[in-house]
Write a sequence for this structure.
């Protein structure tokens, strides 16, 4: 492990802090969801900006917060421009694929379409990264991302091809290769970050979920071969030996399904474990001038974030369903039209043409949407940020503002491919 | 932190604050002096680091109780000043009235917002318009065999849906005399039709009074419709209407339009958020109702022309519609099974739907039809057609 060694001296080591509060963030998310629904989605650019402003301003490094200087308008303008370029492109492909009758032609078109999309997704991710960095300020100095998004996307395609050809064994090469481009082109002020991670360092972690997947696939195929033994045609109900055999067979199938479900869960755990290890390894491979980054992100904490969300979501979902149903009954009963009550009683629901279903749907969507954003996304942000530490010394007075020109528009392409989680 | 520094300063010496000048990442412990027209930010060595006019100082983000206010200046975009001292900030608030003014109070911001909102309207208006205009062209450019392929699948699907998922082949009506009569009637109409389509007309043993056309020349009439018809020219009118749907490629155009709307316009506007279903539903309704009305009227008038050219009494099929409407009610739009994505046009529910209203239709059809024309089939042929699905 290359975890950054934390020294006791406060001058040479510092942890990042996060001071965001659950309720405040929930308020932002809930209002965002409502406004997005009301505006049929157009508000999403401003919604994203509001979220980022809050999160950035609560990330503290050496007692100084980050600041997000992007605006919803920039994102919106970027979206409009990309709409003009990507809209016709995707439209053409969608029509061609839907309308082509020759199956070979459909297959070729689909493959080309997916490749184009995959390429554009990489371009978009890189450009979105640049936008966010240029809109991130610390001590009045902003970041930036040099390099070419097209070259990045081409390399991304190449690495992906390599990963596919090697049945996933080359995934660490892909991850390290792309992360290297992302980090070494990343600037704070006029100085670049450095990256010294290696595919070899990541490989030992990646082997775990990789072997897990092979084992899972093997288990699945042996399960399939088990079901091949079924022969319902020749089954003789009167033959006790055959009945006995069938019962035994059914038990075997059930047991196999149980093992398969268990194996899938274990594989899921392996993946989460790998993601945590990968994040720690990649973070520990980043340095900036005299500073070395490190992360102590814990597996247990990440798993708990997901598990507790699932538990709470099930509970809240059940309470909401019952509660809203109760409100619906009351509203049907409170109406002036006795037929509506009767109808509502009979159907076990209420007047489907009234505004109630819409309002209740809205409440459900906003509550559950907020819950997942707060319990998963915001807690992950909290866990990731506070896991980061920086050691070493740096004379920040020597770091000057970058002189390159920041993009004037926001991540339009990334919006088109829904990459805007952050 | 400045709070740890020397004891509270007097106003002549200035208040303690932290300053990043936007040129380097150094953080300076500075003194803040209130001058007549602005604040002066003074470094530890007594040099002036910046002068900010009161009118141009703004709060960064929103003021929060638990965090010291951060300020920027309109002239010095990247520089940041943090004032932990409450008295100092209260003083600044008094002197700088525009401190908490957000960008949107600025008229230039509003102008920009207006320009881009209008652009958005134009872009999507253009997309919508382009889609509406290009849909008939794309439909027209589609090769016949592709249309037929879509049509076959649509007929299969719709037949199953109406019959309670029976095999369409098993419920196809095949009484030879009836088939011969249907072929005669179809032949009289296609003989005067100049389109390149050849038609596959069949009757299914389904008691619902309905008929539909699918792309590529497939027309399906349900036995329920034949049983409600009183004269062969009524059936001929429905047949002509369906033929017109096929030759004008209404269903095909509709399908192209729907794919375009759902696959391009909706995702672009909503960004795949949960508003997409809402917009999809609303927009689809708007699209459907406006274009269906147009298409139905067009098919009605084309049917009249076809019947007149074939020497069949052209105005009577609206009598059949009125009869069905009287028996089944008229405003059950919700009961239209499936949607037009599947590539077919359900005529009777469409005809019975509120647009265009049957009396109005009867009027313009009667006007276009005039008088004259025969029944289209002999009495014996008509009886055979009514029994195409067998007795009973």
């Amino acid at each position: 492990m290359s975890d950054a060694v934390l020294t006791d001296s406060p001058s040479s080591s510092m942890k990042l802090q996060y001071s965001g509060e659950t309720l405040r963030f929930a308020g932002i998310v809930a209002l965002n969801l409502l406004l997005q629904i009301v505006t049929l989605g157009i508000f999403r650019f401003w919604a994203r900006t509001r979220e980022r402003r809050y999160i950035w301003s609560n990330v503290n490094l050496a007692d100084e917060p980050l600041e997000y200087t992007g605006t919803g308008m920039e994102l919106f303008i970027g979206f409009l421009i990309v709409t003009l370029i990507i809209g016709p492109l995707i439209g053409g492909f969608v029509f061609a694929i839907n309308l082509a009758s020759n199956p070979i032609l459909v297959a070729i078109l689909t493959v080309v379409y997916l490749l184009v999309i995959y390429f554009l997704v990489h371009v978009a991710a890189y450009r979105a990264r640049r936008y966010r960095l240029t809109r991130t300020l610390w001590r009045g100095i902003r970041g930036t991302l040099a390099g070419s998004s097209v070259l990045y996307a081409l390399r991304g395609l190449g690495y992906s091809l390599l990963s596919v050809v090697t049945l996933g064994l080359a995934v660490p090469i892909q991850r390290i290769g792309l992360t290297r481009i992302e980090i070494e082109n990343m600037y704070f002020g006029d100085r670049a970050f450095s990256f010294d991670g290696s595919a070899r360092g990541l490989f030992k972690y990646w082997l775990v979920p990789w072997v897990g997947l092979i084992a899972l696939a093997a288990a699945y195929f042996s399960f399939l071969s088990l079901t091949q033994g079924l022969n319902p045609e020749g089954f003789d109900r009167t033959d006790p030996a055959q009945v006995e055999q069938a019962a035994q067979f059914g038990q075997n199938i059930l047991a196999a399904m149980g093992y398969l479900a268990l194996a899938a869960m274990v594989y899921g755990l392996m993946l989460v474990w790998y993601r945590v290890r990968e994040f720690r390894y990649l973070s520990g491979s980043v340095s900036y001038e005299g500073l070395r980054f490190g992360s102590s992100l814990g597996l247990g904490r990440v798993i708990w974030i997901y598990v507790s969300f699932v538990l709470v979501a099930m509970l809240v979902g059940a309470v909401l369903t019952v509660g809203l149903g109760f409100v619906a009954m009351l509203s049907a009963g409170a109406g002036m039209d006795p037929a509506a009550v009767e109808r509502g009683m009979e159907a076990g629901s209420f007047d489907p043409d009234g505004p109630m279903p819409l309002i209740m749907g809205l409440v459900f969507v906003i509550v559950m949407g907020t819950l997942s954003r707060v319990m998963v996304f915001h807690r992950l942000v909290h866990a990731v940020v506070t896991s980061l530490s920086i050691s070493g010394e740096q004379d920040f007075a020597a770091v000057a503002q970058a002189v390159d020109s920041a993009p004037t528009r926001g991540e339009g392409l990334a919006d088109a491919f829904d990459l805007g989680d952050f | 932190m400045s709070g740890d520094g020397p004891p509270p300063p007097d106003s002549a010496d200035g208040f303690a604050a932290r300053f990043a000048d936007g040129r380097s990442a150094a953080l300076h412990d500075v003194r803040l002096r209130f001058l007549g027209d602005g604040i002066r930010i003074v470094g530890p060595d007594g040099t002036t680091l910046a002068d900010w006019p009161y009118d141009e100082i703004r709060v960064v983000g929103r003021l929060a109780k638990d965090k010291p206010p951060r300020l920027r200046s309109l002239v010095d975009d990247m520089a940041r000043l943090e004032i932990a001292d409450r008295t100092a900030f209260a003083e600044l608030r008094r002197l700088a009235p525009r401190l908490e003014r957000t960008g949107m109070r600025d008229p230039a911001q509003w102008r920009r917002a207006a320009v881009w909102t209008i652009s958005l309207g134009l872009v999507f208006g253009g997309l919508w318009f382009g889609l509406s205009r290009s849909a008939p062209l794309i439909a027209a450019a589609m090769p016949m065999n592709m249309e037929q392929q879509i049509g076959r699948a649509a007929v299969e699907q719709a037949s199953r849906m109406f019959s309670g998922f029976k095999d369409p082949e098993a419920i196809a009506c095949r009484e030879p005399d009836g088939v011969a009569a249907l072929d005669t009637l179809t032949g009289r109409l296609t003989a005067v039709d100049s389109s390149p389509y050849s038609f596959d007309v069949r009757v299914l043993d389904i008691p619902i009074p309905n008929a539909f056309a699918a792309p590529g020349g497939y027309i399906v009439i349900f036995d329920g419709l034949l049983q409600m018809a009183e004269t062969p020219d009524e059936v001929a009118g429905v047949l002509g209407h369906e033929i017109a749907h096929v030759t004008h490629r209404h269903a095909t155009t509709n399908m192209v339009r729907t794919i375009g709307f759902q696959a391009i316009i909706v995702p672009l506007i909503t960004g795949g958020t949960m508003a997409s279903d809402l917009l999809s539903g609303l927009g689809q309704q708007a699209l459907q109702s406006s274009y269906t009305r147009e298409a139905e009227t067009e098919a009605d008038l084309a049917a009249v022309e076809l019947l007149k050219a074939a020497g069949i009494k052209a105005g009577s099929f609206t009598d059949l519609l009125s009869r069905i409407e009287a028996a089944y009610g008229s405003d059950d739009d919700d009961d239209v099974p499936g949607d037009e994505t599947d590539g077919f046009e359900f005529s009777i529910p469409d005809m019975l739907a509120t647009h265009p209203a049957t009396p109005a239709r009867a009027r313009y059809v009667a006007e276009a039809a005039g008088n004259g024309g025969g029944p289209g089939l002999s009495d014996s042929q008509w009886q055979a057609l009514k029994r195409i699905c067998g007795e009973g």
The mean pLDDT of chain B is 81. Chain B has twelve helices and eleven strands. The two ends of chain B are 97 Å apart (CA to CA). Chain B touches chain A through 46 residues (CB under 8 Å).
